[in-house]
Design a protein that fits this description.
Number of helices: 10
Strand order of the largest sheet: 4-3-5-6
Largest sheet: 4 strands, mixed
CATH topology of the largest domain: Glutaredoxin
Radius of gyration: 19 Å
Strand content: 5-15%
Number of strands: 6
Order of helices and strands: HEEEHEHEEHHHHHHH
Helix content: 25-40%
Number of domains: 2
Shape: globular
Low-confidence stretches: 1-20
CATH architecture of the largest domain: 3-Layer(aba) Sandwich
Structural class: mainly alpha
CATH class of the largest domain: Alpha Beta
CATH superfamily of the largest domain: Glutaredoxin
Distance between the termini: 29 Å
Length: 363
């Protein structure tokens, strides 16, 4: 899927070794259904086994590598959380390029097309190393055990929660509490609706296989966006008065909305820039260290418009929209709230992890 597509396995149907097709993501006459059967292993302080017998993995600085493509909203979440919490020294970051073929994400931005730590050309190699012939999607984000080269987990909703709750001994001084215990029930409730109706809702529109499936997905998406517009007109952040996991999860969809989802996925009742509260909220987060400085608009557009060949068969990547507005004043301070609570903003982006010049807002 990137998590971007339903799965690269789905894309591979009909693809051969000498055919570089990126695949088809729309099933005619059908509603889009995301494959959510992930590798559910967790990395925890006590290396406890999972509820279904998954092996436990210990929190250990330097042991794991996070593979997260900038283009993918689900992977972008992990990069934001890693940066906000200051886990750069504890967990290294590998970044595939913005496109993939029908088999796997590739490290085509690295010298020689090889990840410099894992020594692999395709993320698929890490999946196959642990699960030979792995039959599901080769997805990002994924965490890989560096010593063995084996994938540990690709369970993206759990990865960010565990970074907040299990890796606390390696958090930077002043790291925010993104999943505070007293707000978890409300965060979880908001996240469920945001995921089904918005994060995944845009895909249900874009990959709809019939007019009926599209119409239903469109109505659900905009009902949820109207709910968010109302909610965020009265409070600065989604839950409580500080940035939480809920804001991270919504932001990565909003950042891609006008650039990709409005046109490419036909989510076109309004642009984000035409929804006053949501647009100001998105700018507020974008201008907060950890959010805009991890957002690469060029790679985002390249991914969707090039990879989704059945939706955009020409592969033409649009030049717009104008991104200058992301840097305009948002005025959200008037609603109160403290972005990092009792904590502090993260420092500068780690050398080598910067968004390329010309790929961010204002260019």
């Amino acid at each position: 899927m990137s998590q971007e597509t339903d799965s690269i396995q789905q894309a591979a149907s009909g693809a051969t070794a000498d055919h570089s097709t990126r695949g088809a993501y729309v099933t005619g006459g059908a509603e889009f259904t995301r494959d959510t059967n992930y590798i559910e292993d967790r990395i925890t302080r006590d290396a406890r086994p999972g509820d279904n017998g998954e092996p436990g993995w210990p929190v250990e600085a330097g042991r794991y590598r996070l593979i997260a493509a900038r283009a993918c909203p689900w992977a972008n979440r992990t990069v934001i959380v890693r940066r906000l919490l200051g886990l750069e020294d504890a967990i290294s970051l590998g970044q595939p390029g913005p496109t993939h073929d029908a088999r796997s994400w590739t490290f085509d931005l690295d010298p020689g097309g090889v990840d410099p730590v894992l020594g692999i050309e395709r993320l698929q190699e890490a999946y196959f190393k642990r699960f030979p012939g792995y039959p599901r999607g080769i997805t990002v984000p994924a965490i890989v055990d560096v010593a063995t080269g084996e994938v540990v987990t690709n369970n993206f909703p759990q990865i960010t929660l565990d970074l907040s709750t299990e890796w606390t001994q390696f958090h930077r001084p002043g790291a925010p509490k993104l999943y505070p215990e007293h707000l978890r029930e409300e965060i979880d409730q908001v996240n469920r609706r945001v995921f089904t109706e918005v994060n995944n809702g845009v895909y249900r529109c874009g990959f709809a296989g019939s007019q009926e499936a599209y119409d239903s997905a469109y109505e659900r998406l905009w009902a949820a966006l109207d709910w968010l517009e109302d909610r965020l007109s009265r409070q600065r952040y989604l839950v409580g008065d500080t940035i939480t996991e809920a804001d991270v999860r919504l932001f990565t969809t909003l950042a891609r909305f006008d650039a990709v989802y409005h046109g490419h996925f036909k989510c076109n009742r309004q642009k984000l820039t035409e929804m006053p509260a949501l647009w100001a909220y998105a700018r507020d987060l974008f201008q907060t260290p950890g959010f805009g400085d991890t957002t690469d608009f060029v790679q985002i557009k390249q991914h969707y418009y090039i990879v989704h060949e059945d939706i955009n068969p020409t592969g033409i990547v649009p030049a717009g929209p104008d991104l200058g507005g992301w840097l305009e004043e948002h005025g959200r301070e008037a609603l109160g709230g403290r972005p990092f609570g009792d904590g502090t903003p993260p420092g500068p982006v780690r050398k080598g992890e910067e968004v390329a010049a010309g790929h961010g807002a204002g260019h």
